[in-house]
């Protein structure tokens, strides 16, 4: 399984980077809902992040 985050917009990517979320493991630790309040993280980015966490291994 890849540990890379999905392709999301630049503002969301910057917000995640500033929050210390750089990999799927980081995202699992924090949880996507905790990122919902960050400036730059919108509904589409949250959907993509949740989908990445739910994807079967190997995708």
What would you say this structure looks like, in words?
With 59 residues, the chain is mainly alpha-helical. The protein has one domain. It has 4 helices and no strands. It has helices spanning 10-18, 24-30, 32-35, 43-54. The longest helix has 12 residues, at 43-54. The model has no long low-confidence stretch (mean pLDDT 90).
Average residue pLDDT: 90
Helix content: 40-55%
Helix count equals 4
**What structural class should be given to the helix and strand makeup?**
mainly alpha
Q: N- to C-terminal separation?
A: 7 Å
Strand composition percent: under 5%
List the helices and strands in order: HHHH
- Low-confidence residue ranges: none
Return Rg in Å.
10 Å
E-strand count: 0
Shape: globular
Sheet with the most strands? Answer: none
What count of structural domains? Answer: 1
Protein name: DNA-binding protein
Pfam families: HHH_5
